[in-house]
Structures are given as structure tokens and as C-alpha cells.
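User: I'll paste a sequence; please echo it back and then give the predicted structure.

Assistant: Echoing your sequence first, then the prediction.
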Amino acid sequence: MTTQQHRDGAAATVLVLDDNETNRYIVGSWLRRAGHTVVEAADGTEGLALLAAAPDGELPELAVVDVKLPDMSGFEVCEQIKADPRTASLPVIHVSATAIELSDRTQGLHRGADAYLTEPIAPDELLATVTAALRYARARRRAERLATRVAALNSSTLAVYAAKDGETFTAAAAAGAAALMESAAVAVGLSPDNRTLHLAAAPDLGGARTDPAQPEARLLDLLTEKALGDRTGTETVVLPDAEWRALTCQEDGRADVFRGDVALTLARTQRGRPPVAFAVRADALTGADDRELLSQLAQACALALEALRTRSEEHALVLTLQRTFLPDRLPEVPGVDLAVRYEPAADDAEIGGDFYEAIRTPDGLLLAIGDVAGHSLKAAMIMGEVRHALRAYAIEGHDPQSLLKNLDALLVRLRPSMTVTVCLVLVEPGGRRIQVANAGHIPPLLRHPDGTTRYLTEHGPLLGLNLPHPPPVTHDVPEGSTLLLVTDGLIEVVGEDLDTSLRKLSDTLSRAPSGIEELCDRLLASFGQGKTDDIALLAARLD
């Protein structure tokens, strides 16, 4: 007999329900000699009340029920037991000295009984039937619990893979371990950039702290020495309560969630990488299934953290690449103050095609803002090509209409099927007149010295369509005016009409500070939070 079979057949608390005192004594004595604990009831009402009053952890594991009872039949008692979710899995063995016909036995089984014995009953037969029923019920409960925990493992794995940063990852890992092991849990891990240590407890008694103080940063190294060392894979060790407290609780009080020994599990997938650590109550690991499930969760979390690290490294790399495509400084032009802002889309490893430019030309200061269709490395590469071509054409002295014509021809020839929006504004010497040539971009917004605003709405087709572009439109601008050029990432809101967003931008600009640096900050604070697209804006104060 295996260890698990022995456990499944071990002694239990048994309810004996019979109105005959002698029968209760005999059956009870057989069960007690076999090691079982017996509770007795004389009729159906008393037996059902006993089950209802028992706490969840102290319910009998099996009931031996006489079919002939004074207040109700044993069949009715069985049906009520099986109808109650608390006792539905309780095995019921019918016993009868009178209802012994085939029809009686089949009725009892059809109405929920797990076995049906007719008197006279041999002690060995009763005990063997009790043992078999207990084995089946315990194996079924174990399988149901395992299925529930596998579902919890899947949910926890999805949660850690959905995490966007170290704090949410660690919180999800701790919650997953707590749900899986039905225990208080602590998770410890470094942020994806390996700079900040995060510790989370479940249930959360105070929120995850992200203080990168040196003593706290050493905590993961101390835990690693206790179990995993420099190896890969997963390891679990049991730490005495005092040792766990000495390691962790003086560093972070939120780790003080255990009363007793602690099971510490660490996992890493690549040598040289910081591991992720879990702690649960040691008594939560009662068998091989528990250790295997916790090990699987730890391995899933280690893989998820590694993916998060890789995504963070890629994101930092592509942002660095993207910024090399943008101007490293703005020209200094008397009478014109310039300010720019560029904000990449949050938590996205891909990069976009938003760009801005400011170039001194023989005809004045050329301001440009544009957006390549798409959000990918290809879009960023095309953005770099367009911007460099724009600089080259502008330095040669081409007017705004010729610039758009040349850029359009370049795209049609070298990047067919790609489209780009570009708005060009030429600030003539002296800053009192501007020329606007817009190829399908959001119109520039002009604020007059008195605070009134208006969009300069004249525009032509997008670049890349091989269509003619109209000549630029000239506007007189009073001294002290402010010109604002933006990409759609600043103002577009899912489900909101673009005209509504444009009106909000105009209203905000009319009330914004006169200083262009403060203006840019105000616009980003008002419109740029939580956006899923890159944002570029360029502001010019014409003094």
C-alpha cells in the first residue's frame, strides 16, 4: 500500500445515525476499535442538526445511516446531506435489517448513498466498506483541490506576465503564492532594470515599498545564499521562524506575516541574473503536490521577470535609438524663443514616427513637425530619413511648397505605400509674418498677445500620395504671439471626436502661461498623461 493510499484510508470521524441504541453501540464499538472517532444521533433531525452545527474543519467525514428512522427515512436524510454544499461530498453508507430487497438497495443508491449494507453485517465488511468510501471521498476531494489550485496557478501566471513593472510584478507574485498555497506569502524581486528591490506581502498589510536603500537591496542576496546560490532552476528550503525574522523583518516589517517556520523558494532561469524569491508558511507544504505547484509558480515568475527585463532593455534601447533621430539642439534666432517636448508612448517597446525640426534657412527660421504612419522601428527609420531629407532640402534654400513636393517624391520613390503628415511654418526675418504649408497634419495653433487663439487650417494632401501641394499661406502675426505645433498623440482620446480635443487644446493655450517652457509643461500635464502614442510638440514665441 502506498503512503497516499494509507492516508486516504486513515481513521476518520464517523456519524452513526440509528434510532436503535443497541445498534448504535455495536456499530460504534466496531468503528472505535478500528481507530475511528464516532458521533451518534438517534434520528434524522438530530443528525442533520449535528452536521449543520459542526464547523467546516470539524465535519464528520462519513455517515452510517439506518434506513428506517422514526422521523424521516434514511433516504431523505441522505438526499438532504447531498443537497447541502457543505456536506455534498460526505460519503453515506445505508444500513438496514428490513429494507433488504433489491428495490430498496437500488433506491438507496439512486438517492445518493455511496454504499448499501443489509443486516446481519460482519464487522470486517462494515470496516472495509467504510475504508473504501473514505478512500474514494478523500481522493476525489484531493483531485478537486488540485484542479482548483492548478486553476489558481494559471491565473497567477497570467497575472505576473501581465505586470508592467517591478512593483506590480512582485505584488502579483505574492498574491499568486498566497492563493495557490492558501497561506500568507511574501515575494521579493529586483525591478527589471535591477536597481530597485521590491517586496510585497499577501495579504497586503501596507503596500509594496520601493525604497532602494542599501540594506534592503542586500536582502535578495541574503535569501539567495540560503537556497539557490549561483545555480539556475528552483530550490526550496525551510527556515526557522527566528532565522526568517533575522533576515527580513528588521529590513521591512511587511515580511512579518508568518507565525512559525517559513518555506523559502527561489528561482532563476539564467545564470548571473537576480532570482525571484517566495516565502509561505512551512506547514502549507504538506506533500509533493504542494512543492511541485509552488516550484511551478516560482519558475513561471522567474520566466515572466526575465521577459520583463528583456522588454525593459529593449525599450531603453529603442528610446535611445529614437532620440538619435531627433535634433540634439535648437537654433538660436533673435526675436524667436523655442521650446520642444518629446514623450514616448508609455510601456511600449516599439517606437513611433513623430518628429520635429527647427532649421535656419536663407529665407528665415523653418519650423516643422510631422508623423510617419505606424508605430514601429520601420516608422522611426522613415522618420529619420524624412527629417534628414528635410534638413538637406531646407539648407539648399527650397521654399515650403518645394520642400513638400521633394519630400513627397522621395517617399513615393523610396518608400511606396508609406504616408507621412508634415506641417511646415517658415518664420520670416523679423518674425512678423509666417508661411504655413501643411501636408495633412494637425493645423498649427496661434495665440495672439491678447490671449485669443485660432487654428491656421489651410492644408494639402499627405506626403506619399503623389498629389500636388498648394503654395504656402502667409499670415501676419503680432509681436508677442505664440505658435504651437503638435502631433496627434498629445490630443487624441479614444472615443472622443478630434474637433472636441482641438477645442480643448485651444482653450488651454489661451489660458496657459506666457513663458513657452511653462506652456509646454502645462500642455503635457493637461493632455499627455497615460497616452498610448508618442507626443511631440514645438512652441515658438515671436517677440
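Residues 45 and 81 are 12 Å apart (CA to CA). The two ends are 94 Å apart (CA to CA).
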